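so my prof wants the structure for this chain in the tokens format not the other one, which i didnt know existed until like an hour ago. anyway here's the sequence
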Amino acid sequence: MGPRLARIRQLTKQHLRAHRLEDSSLHLSYDGAAASEVEHIVKLERECCAFLDYALSRRGDDVELTIVGPEQSGSDAQRLFSQFLPENMSAAQPPGCGCRKG
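here's what i got, hopefully its the right format
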């Protein structure tokens, strides 16, 4: 889990252009140069957190990723998606994968 989360954090730090958290959905926009890395991370996340839905698409020069989880909002949704959020938004969350309890 550690290497996978580190990889997600690096992707976020280097390539995330925009994000929007709406209830149980997280919408992410990455620089197109990171397309293969985003695809690889989505593959790993599907194995780890199969209860989440992942949708990838291209929009101009960007790679769009939407992740939809079970109904929740506010801090619960922020915790669920914390590994994909910029550090300033996820700093209050304990390190780890938000999809796993404990």
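also thought this was worth mentioning. The longest helix spans residues 2-15.
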